[in-house]
Amino acid sequence: MAGQFLVEPLGSQHDRESFACGVEALDRYFRKQVTQDIRRRVTACYVAVEAPGGEVAGYYTLAASGIPLSDMPAELAKRLPRYPLVPVARLGRLAVEQAYRGRKLGGALLWDAVQRSLRSEIAVFALVVDAKDDEAEAFYRHHGFVSFGSRPRQLVLPLTNLVAKG
Prior knowledge:
With 166 residues, the protein is an alpha+beta fold. It has 4 helices and 7 strands. It has helices at 24-39, 74-77, 105-119, 134-142; strands spanning 5-9, 44-50, 56-68, 85-96, 126-130, 146-147, 154-158. Helix 3 (105-119) links the parallel strand 4 (85-96) and strand 5 (126-130).
C-alpha cells in the first residue's frame, strides 16, 4: 500500500461523515448506505487510513458477481469453460478523499482490491467494474482493464496472469 496508509475493513471506528471525494453519489453512499449493504452481506468495504486510527483517505467496495460468458471478450472467453456465467469480483465503488488526491492512492486501493480478489477462498476469474465517467474509465484502462459486454464503460481485468502476494 502507498506509504503511510493502512487498508482495513470499514468499522464503527471510522468517521464516514467528513469524507468528501467530490462526487456526491460516492460521498452519499459512503456516509449513508454502505453499512446497510455490509450488514445485508451484499458488499464488503475497505478503507485506507493514515496510520492506525487516522482519518479515512479512500475506500472501495467489493462483491461477488457473475457475468455471462457471451459478454466476455472473445480472446478471454476461448480460455474458459462453457459455463453460462463467469465468476468475478465486482469493484462497486472506489473513491479518494479530495485532500489525498495526487498521491496515487486510487491505484493503491485498486491494487488492494486485485490482491483481495486473488487471495479469496472463492474462485473468481476477473475483477469487473462499471466506470462512472470518462475520467474513471481512463483510470481503469490505465491499470489494464478492457471493455466487455454491450454497455458502455463495462470493464474487466482478468486475474489469471496476476500473482497474489502475501
